[in-house]
Every structure is written in structure tokens, then in C-alpha cells.
Design goal:
GO terms for molecular function: identical protein binding; N2-acetyl-L-ornithine:2-oxoglutarate 5-aminotransferase activity; pyridoxal phosphate binding. By secondary structure, the chain is of the alpha/beta class. 36% of the residues lie in helices and 20% in strands. The strands form 4 sheets. Strands 4-12-11-10-7-5-6 form a 7-stranded mixed sheet, with helices on both faces. The protein has a 4-stranded mixed sheet with strand order 1-2-3-15. A 4-stranded antiparallel sheet has the order 13-14-17-16. Strand 1 and strand 2 form a beta hairpin. Helix 3 runs parallel beside helix 9. The longest helix is centred in the C-terminal third of the chain and has 19 residues. The radius of gyration is 20 Å and the shape is globular. It binds pyridoxal-5'-phosphate (PLP).
Length: 382
């Protein structure tokens, strides 16, 4: 019997090893990894440079404390902000990055209200949970943090109605991940950014799932020509070593003065040395172009299913973040099980969307193999 809280619905396989795009369970069975630990292992498993970064730092100092200067944090911050006018704060997870964003937005603006979107996901701690537009996830945990309102995603009129000079921030994902792989429409997101500017409202873009090259650009928002005031990152930032980051415009610095916010572990040396390597590997034009190409290939292959199978309602996404909307939650369960039997791991998003998040380093051959398995399993599901 498990000694663990039953808060996760766990599959019985226990992944004990990994190499590249493959993972191995307790019985030595291999699986093609099309979920990357939920968009975490973007450089795949056992990446030699990531191992080197971890082991080099493991023999120096793991943790120093944010009471001291930290050149590794400075280095990662420099790489993440890419010469733009942002400052960085490091923490340990996605939800903490969003907590920092929410606190910073309220303190910097002196305003209380934050607008976020239906079926969004921002994390499980109280602030991030309160920003999350999914009543099922909040059920039983009231009172949540006040001041949040949830608007329909990709719709402008409700936002135009709600957004005024009392709103501290608008918080959104560029592609809603947990909510069902729902990309923001370009005109909408650009209009949101404009409205925010007009009201001196901060735009918080949660790139925790979409960032780190996942969609073929380093940040997903880059494809929309917008400039967020605050950006949050976590998941793939250190390829599996827990770390999160919040980037904010340097004009917000005063609101996060000494003693205003902090964390013991945040940005520790071990996590930072790995993050430095991961960011360096991913943030290269040639690497990102390949992710975009692989994503286009996968999307094209899978889009054929919309005409070939009545079970497939839509195929959408960007780069290597792709969702296949199926006709029901039951079909989705059958497909996930069928894929596992064919030795491919994928997960769900929303109620009936199959979510594909292979490592960004996946080879064309592995990608084609995965696409064929997915097509076969979906075609054989009845
Ligand atoms: C996973 C995720 C989070 C929460 O990150 P944790 O590290 O699990 O706290 C927040 N926002 C988005 C978009 C996510 O995908």
C-alpha cells in the first residue's frame, strides 16, 4: 500500500531511467517520451552537458544564501533577459514565480484587481490558485485570495468592459496548457497588450509551460510582437532541477526593495549552474529553428487525423506543444492507454485533449515514429 497522499492519480509504471527521448520503467520497458515530465525535460534525459553542469557544481557549493551576491544568478539573469530592460528574481517552482508576479504587480501599481482567464492554470499555492480560472481546482479550498476575476479567453469585449485603471494586472498563458492547448489569437493578444498599456495595467505572461523554446521561439510571446511587463518561467528552466524565475521590467524594481520578498532556496548555485547550461543550449537560433520545423512536421502529420478519424475534433498548438482534441474523455483515456501499450507516453490536457510535449531534442526519426504510433492508435480506437 502506498504511504503517499492520494493527491495524484498515478499510473503504475515507475520511470527509473532515461536516455535522450526514451524513458525506462522498473521492468526495463522502454517508452518514447512524448510528455517530457510535463514540459520539463526539454533537452531530453541524461543530456551530457546538463550532467556536466550538475556534477561540476555538485563538487563546489550547492547553496550559499540570498544574503550574498551570486554571480551564477547574474549570469542566468543576463541570458534570460537578452539585453532587454528586465530584472530577474529566482525561486523554486512555477507557482512561486506566479506568486512573485502577483505580489509585485499589486505592490508596484497599488491596485488590487487582477484579471485572468477561464480554464487557465497558474499553480496550486493560494495566490496562483486564485489566479487559476478553474473552479474544480479551487473547490474545497476557500477562502481563496480575493481580487481575481476570470474572463473568457480569446474574447475582447469582456476584457474591454473590465479593464480600467483599477486593474493591477492581466495574467495569461500564450497557449493555455493544462486548459487544453488553446493558443491565443494574435489580434486578441496584441489588443490585450495595448489595452494594458492604455490603463497602466501590467501584463503578466505565464511562460512556465510555453517558454524555454517549447513553441519554437525562446518565449512563446515573441511570435506575437508584444512586450510583457512580467514573465514567469519554471518547468524546463533547469531540465528537471527545481527552479523558477520571474522577469519584470526594471521600472518595477522599487516595489521589490530589500526585504520585500524572498525565498531560501531560490536561485541556488546547483539550480543556477544547470539553468545556465540549459538556457545556453536552447536559446540559439539554429536550435529554435529546428524546434519550429519539427513542430510543423508533427502538426502537419497529425492534422491529417481530423479528416481520417471522426474521433478527432481538432489538432492545434505550436512548436512541440501540440494538442489533439478528441470527441470525449473516454476516447482520450483509451488513446492514452493504447499509446502506452505501444510504448509511447503522452498526457491529457483539459477534459478531452491529448497533449504532446516531446523533448525539443527529439530526432526526426523518433518524431516520425511517434507520429505513426499516435495515428495508428487513434485510428484503431473505437
Ligand atoms: C505547470 C504550470 C504552473 C505551475 O508550476 P509548478 O512548478 O507546478 O508550480 C503554472 N503555470 C503554468 C502555465 C504551468 O504549466
Amino acid at each position: 500500500m502506498s504511504q503517499l497522499f492520494p493527491n495524484y492519480l498515478r499510473d503504475e509504471i515507475d520511470l527509473v531511467d532515461g536516455l535522450g527521448s526514451y524513458v525506462y520503467d522498473q521492468n526495463g520497458q522502454s517508452y518514447l517520451d512524448f510528455m517530457s515530465g510535463i514540459a520539463v525535460s526539454n533537452l531530453g534525459h541524461n543530456h551530457p552537458k546538463v550532467i556536466q553542469a550538475l556534477s561540476e557544481q555538485a563538487e563546489k557549493i550547492w547553496h550559499s544564501s540570498n544574503l550574498y551576491s551570486n554571480s551564477l544568478q547574474e549570469k542566468v539573469a543576463q541570458k534570460l533577459t537578452m539585453g532587454k530592460d528586465y530584472l530577474a528574481f529566482f525561486c523554486n517552482s512555477g507557482t512561486e514565480a506566479n506568486e512573485a508576479a502577483i505580489k509585485l504587480a499589486r505592490k508596484a501599481t497599488g491596485r488590487k484587481k487582477i484579471l485572468s482567464f477561464k480554464q487557465s492554470f497558474h499553480g496550486r499555492t493560494y495566490g496562483a490558485l486564485s489566479a487559476t480560472g478553474q473552479p474544480e481546482l479551487q473547490a474545497g479550498f476557500f477562502p481563496i485570495v480575493e481580487g481575481f476575476e476570470y474572463l473568457p479567453y480569446n474574447q475582447l469585449p469582456p476584457l474591454q468592459q473590465q479593464l480600467d485603471e483599477t486593474v493591477a494586472a492581466v495574467m495569461l498563458e500564450v497557449i493555455q496548457g493544462e486548459g487544453g492547448i488553446i493558443p491565443a489569437e494574435k489580434e486578441w493578444l496584441q489588443a490585450v497588450a495595448k489595452l494594458c498599456k492604455a490603463n497602466n495595467t501590467l501584463l503578466i505572461v505565464d511562460e512556465i509551460q510555453t517558454g524555454m523554446g517549447r513553441t519554437g521561439t525562446f518565449f512563446a510571446f515573441e511570435a506575437y510582437q508584444i512586450e510583457p511587463d512580467i514573465i514567469t518561467l519554471a518547468k524546463a528552466l533547469a531540465n528537471g532541477i527545481p527552479v523558477g524565475a520571474m522577469l519584470g521590467k526594471s521600472g518595477l524594481a522599487e516595489a521589490f526593495g530589500p526585504g520585500s520578498h524572498g525565498t531560501t532556496f531560490g536561485g541556488n548555485n546547483l539550480a543556477m549552474n544547470v539553468a545556465n547550461t540549459v538556457v545556453t543550449e536552447i536559446n540559439q537560433p539554429a536550435f529554435l529553428a529546428k524546434v519550429a520545423d519539427k513542430g510543423n512536421y508533427l502538426l502537419n502529420e497529425l492534422t491529417k487525423l481530423t479528416t481520417e478519424s471522426v474521433k478527432v475534433k481538432a489538432v492545434r498548438g505550436k512548436g512541440l506543444m501540440i494538442g489533439i482534441e478528441l470527441d470525449s474523455p473516454e476516447t482520450l483515456q483509451q488513446v492514452i492507454q493504447g499509446l502506452k501499450e505501444e510504448q509511447l507516453l503522452a498526457i491529457k490536457a483539459g477534459k478531452n485533449v491529448l497533449r504532446l510535449l516531446p523533448p525539443l531534442t527529439i530526432s526526426q526519426e523518433e518524431l516520425a515514429k511517434g507520429a505513426n504510433i499516435i495515428k495508428k492508435v487513434i485510428m484503431e480506437t473505437n
